[in-house]
Amino acid sequence: MEEVPVTMPDLGGRRVLITGAAQRLGAVIARAFAECGAAVVAHCFRSKDEAEKLIASLPPCPAPFRHEVFFCDLTNLYAVRCMAETVGPVDYLVNNAAMWIRGDAPQAELDRQEAVNVLAPCKLIRVFARIRPPDREFSAVNILDAAMLSLSASEPATSYEATKAVLRRDTLALARKLAPHVRVNAVAPGPVFPPRELGDAGMKHIPSTLPLERPVDPLDVARAVVLLASAPSVTGAVLPVDCGQSLLSQQP
Description:
Elements: E1 15-18, H1 24-35, E2 39-44, H2 48-57, E3 68-71, H3 77-87, E4 92-95, H4 107-130, E5 138-143, H5 146-149, H6 159-178, E6 182-189, H7 218-230, E7 238-241
Parallel strand pairs: 1-2, 1-4, 2-3, 4-5, 5-6, 6-7
Helix pairs in contact: 1-7, 3-4, 4-6
């Protein structure tokens, strides 16, 4: 049987805001959208130079749109709302930015983690849904974590995994509440990049424990995000892209 090539959608004339777009998975997602013709609004906080280099390297988008960089502290929900209203209506939102801290961190740091991982994504979805032009749909994709999906009942969640579990719950709730003109989905990547705080040692031995015995290709994650963002018939979906990691806690 002849293999049918996979083609990416044509997103010319569309705008996408990607949080945490300057580096790592966010940069891969930004490039995937740009290569489909979308105008990328790259959010960053501290990575100004990396964000500007990314924007300069992206293929140009059709006029009158252009790629842009926006700076915002996602722990400040007032600033989050102001950023969304300043950016203006977008077709797609990718809530990629995340904060990972150790479970024994002070409560103030846990609160910051919750703001970045849960409160800011939901705030952005609600604001963009509110300012959506009446004749255009709006679509959001939240980035979760496959480790959250593979927890067993006897295995306690870390504070990071707990925030991602709440974001998964909110993904489904917002998908129901904001339909029919707003779609909300999620992608749950497996081990792509280790947390910066842990370095390469943070996931050195993980790939060999996965059913597919290899690390997740970040381009596969980016393609899944573009697919869910642009598929008109899909809402409330949580798609693992994890080389089988989410299967590990499931009983046959």
